[in-house]
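User: Sequence for FecR domain-containing protein below. Tokens please.
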Amino acid sequence: MEHIPQHIINILRSTTFQNLTEQEQSDLNCWLEEDEENKRLWLRFSSKDIFKNDLNTFGKYDWESSFKTFEQNHLQVADEKIKKLFNPWYAAVSVMIIGLLIGISYYITVGQYEDLPSQAIVPAENHAEMLLPSGERITLNEGSDLMIIDSSFNINKKHSQAGSFVGIPSHFSVVTPKGKKYALQLPDGSKVWMSVDTRIAYDEFDSLRSLTLSGEAYFEVAKRTFKNENGTSGLKPFIVKTKGMHVEVLGTHFNVSAYPDAKIQRTTLMEGKVKVSNEKHVCVLLPGEEARLQDGKIVRKEIDTDQNVAWKDGYFIFNEDKLSDILVEVSKWYNVDIVYLDEEVKEEQYEGMLSRNSQLIDIISVLEGTNEVTFKFKKRTIYVSKK
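Assistant: Structure tokens for FecR domain-containing protein:
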């Protein structure tokens, strides 16, 4: 394929490949039959997923620097007129490529919206996987309200799609993907409600219980004792570790939100007492208080705890929250992607309470009620723009 004829370029720049005239379709078919390379190029243009990746790569490429390198390596001639001849050629090629990309990217990102979300998009359901040190993966039963691992580290068959498991190691992990949640009782009797897109790794030792968290979870920690070296009994600490924060408890109810992509990590205390620390700061929380980790600093403050633990009871609660923050939660809960066509809409604020069992269209209808924002859909992607 030495070059692309101009009339084919015009066809490829079309914002919809499905409404070509008979003549355009005929020209396109003839061009495709000329060369296998033409067919491969056409597949890239007509595949949204492939071309999205091409667009991202193309947008990051430093064309000006690359062309200067080409000039230095291949055009080191005395006659400046020759160099000047290449500049219009370079500009023309750039304009052609940019025009082509704009046309097709418009088709990819703007054309063929749906007014309603797919019926396949549903609220978060019960589902998780347990990962064992051996590499074995156990699919946990979707219908279980609370999966129980007993004190002998056994899972009853009703909690697993693969039957009973005896003698699970004292170290294991449980994962919920986007759009899935799960609740389980640990071998020590503590209960953990895992939100969507969350991972926990549990270890139990003679004198310590340790859980590493990425995501969000609500804990009801059971009090446990152990024998000290001198034979006396002591309370067995339960430590929740996140990236940058440790939460130490003996027996209490609290929530930890520590998603990797979030700017702020939060520990919210409902009952009892917890110690929150990192390498530089330590604070002790009382019920109704929150420890907030941001930029390496831990700040304690009194809050209305209902909003931070509402997810566990099945609600979205918005209190002058930005649309961008709300849609982060919606994205995880309904397993959808969010694309902003107007960045300014991110700052729109909302108040209210909605059930997390609502269909996505019900959530969207409330958000559109301000008459400031509108939503369109393609499969599992939501496009947000100013109304």
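Residues 210 and 348 are 40 Å apart (CA to CA).
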